[in-house]
Every structure is written in C-alpha cells, then in structure tokens.
Design goal:
Length: about 130
C-alpha cells in the first residue's frame, strides 16, 4: 500500500500491516529471576587490555523484570538503591555471592576492647560501600 493511499478509513489496516506481527510475538522466558545476584558487563576503552576483566566486580541483585522484546531488567545494589537504566540478559552474568569481597585498601585501623578493627575500601565498589 502506498503512503498516499492511507486515510482515516483504512488507518487501522495499515497499522496492522506494519506492526501486527510484533504484537503476536511473545517475549522469551526470562533467564534471571527477581532476587538473582548478577554482575554486569564493563565497557572497555581503547587502551584497556583484553586480559582485564570484562565484568564488574560489584555484585547487583535483579530487582524487576520488564517483559519487553527482548527482556530487560532493573538492578539494585547491596544498599537497595535501584541502578539507573535497564540491562539486557546478554549484559548480565549470574553469580553466586560467596560473601568474599577483596579489599583494595585499608583506610583506617583502630583497637577497640583489645581487638583490631579496620575501615576498608573494597575493590571495584564505590566509596559508599566502605566499611
């Protein structure tokens, strides 16, 4: 059908011809569930080496599944702050959180009741996660 032949009487038919198949297409079953722990892929700059990590060190939790084509997810960090934007399944990697997080740097040290306590920065995490 030619664009010049579209009018108010046949506009629904034209819309169905253009977009009808997309409505019939169902989104795939999601690979991740709400509550799954994941890492997200890192964007590499030109100068970064290929042997460096392709995935973030920070671990996120799947917060919400948005049933689109393709399926996308909203994520949240350990402080339950929702991360801005949505992520495709291909940008996420499911992980098991062992509770081990490598320390980048010891910021402070103190003794309390005969025990040493450390304030540290964790590798790959923002400063708000220092503890």
């Amino acid at each position: 059908m030619e664009p010049s032949s579209v009018n108010i009487d046949n506009q629904s038919q034209v819309w169905q011809n253009l977009y009808g198949e997309l409505i019939k297409e169902k989104s795939e079953k999601p690979s991740f569930k709400v509550g799954d722990t994941v890492r997200i892929s890192k964007w590499k700059e030109r100068s970064e080496k290929g042997y460096e990590n392709n995935w973030s060190r920070e671990i996120f939790t799947a917060h919400k599944i948005l049933p689109r084509i393709p399926t996308v997810y909203r994520l949240q960090d350990f402080h339950n702050n929702v991360i801005q934007g949505t992520f495709y399944e291909k940008e996420m990697q499911k992980v098991v959180d062992s509770g081990y997080h490598p320390v980048e740097k010891v910021l402070k040290k103190r003794n309390r009741n005969g025990k040493s306590e450390y304030f540290v920065k964790f590798l790959g995490y923002p400063e708000e996660f220092n503890s």
